[in-house]
Every structure is written in structure tokens, then in C-alpha cells.
Amino acid sequence: MSYATQIETVACHSLLHLEMQKRYTERFIPVEKRNQILVKYLKGMVKSPKYKLAKKDIKTLIQLGRKKGQNLELHIEALRVLEKPTGNNDLENFYFLVKDIERQLSTSVQYTSNFEITRSKTTKPPEIWICHTDLHSCFDKDMELTDTLNWLVSASAAKEEVLLNILSSYSMFTVEHSRNEGDLFLYMRKCRVEDTCEQVPSPYECRVQLAPDSTSTKTSF
Fold first, then answer.
1. 124 burial type by CB count under 10 A (0-12 exposed, 13-18 middle, 19+ buried)
2. Record's InterPro entries (predicted)?
């Protein structure tokens, strides 16, 4: 891998690793704890020969994460974003998508390997869940999405509309959706060439065209 690719890989997988830690807590993860999680993950990467060109940068990030008052997550974001509004690959775009949702809906996207089991054990279920046993395995070596990500949404109609509006701005993904007992299920995958030919509905149309209980409708965003 080139230096640029190694930096991109380090940043993407570090941020994804941090996202996955939400599976193990119902509480907001404070900055200090986020730094600890990222530093521990980066320490494993700095030992790998795959990232020898980025070794110095990884060590710098580890040092930043150990300093009081620093937000390592923001440093890693800046390492790749550099004021760009979009990502360079599906993994980056997925991360930015989740952050957009959390910031615009003032909620936390959570992760689980099983919707029903997690819901039964959760005292206050989150409004948005993404289900997968290992998010890292959903992306290939080029950081492109290779698997379907299943979402469960238990939110108000107004929030659903905002959510669909956000999804519609990420044209690299396509989404199918269904309803069951009031819950909205989303099935997100990489947008294929044939998907781009379909007319993109407005967010409001997406909401009112949601399939009735136990049926499914396809929408390309």
C-alpha cells in the first residue's frame, strides 16, 4: 500500500473500531474513554508491517491521545477529511453518514449482532440500531461495502423523514425498507450501476411510500 492508502486505512478502521464499541454500552462514551479506546487500537496497528509507511503518523496519534484535553477522534477525522465534505471510499462515507445522523437527529446510532436479544436486555432502547456481527468484515481491502447493513429505526415520523433525507444525500448507497409492528427496517448496500438509473424520490416521498407491515419497498438514494 502507498503512504496515502496506509493513512486512509488507519484512519478509517480506527474510527470504525470506535463506532463498534457502542455495542458494549448504553451510555455516551466520553472523550477521555474514546481516546483510550483509539490509543489501544492504534498500538496494535503500529506493530503491523502493513503500516510501516504510516508508522510515524500512528505514533504521533498515540501521543496525542495520551495528552490531557485532546480529542483523538477529531484528529483522526482531520487526517482524512481535511475540510472535504465527502469520503474517498464506502467506509469513510459510512462513518460520515453515521455522524451526520447523530448530529442532525441528536441521537446515538448503536450496534448489535441481534436486534431482538439486545432489545430485550436494554432498559432504554436507542432510536437507531445497525445490526452486524463484525462491521470490519463488511468492507473489503479497498474499503468498499461488500455486505448488506441492516438497520432498525424506532423513531417519530419527523425523525424518520430527516433520516431518509440524510440517506438520500449519500448516493453511493442504496436502501430497501420495510415496516413491522411500527418499526422501520432499512437494508443498506453499495449502489450498483443499475441502481443509479432509477429516479431518486424526495425524502418526503420516501416516508409516505414506506411499505406496510411485513412488506418491503426498494428505494435508491
1. exposed
2. DUF2913 (IPR021316)
Residues in contact with 141: Cβ distance below 8 Å, sequence separation at least 6, in sequence order: none
Give yes or no for a contact between 58 and 46, defined as CB atoms under 8 angstroms apart: yes
Per the CB < 8 A criterion, the answer to whether 137 and 187 are in contact is no
Give the span between the Cα atoms of 163 and 61, in whole angstroms. 33
Q: In what order do the strands lie in the sheet with 109-112?
A: 109-112, 128-131, 149-153, 183-190, 173-180, 216-220
pLDDT greater than 50 at residue 207: no
Helix (H, G, I), strand (E, B) or coil at 124: coil
Q: Single out the residue of 220, 102, 100 nearest to residue 171, CA to CA.
A: 220
Report DSSP state, residue 11.
Answer: H
CA distance 12 to 149: 17
Q: What span, in angstroms and rounded, lies between the C-alpha atoms of 13 and 39?
A: 13
- pTM of the prediction? 0.57
pLDDT digit string, tens, across residues 156-167: 889 999 998 889
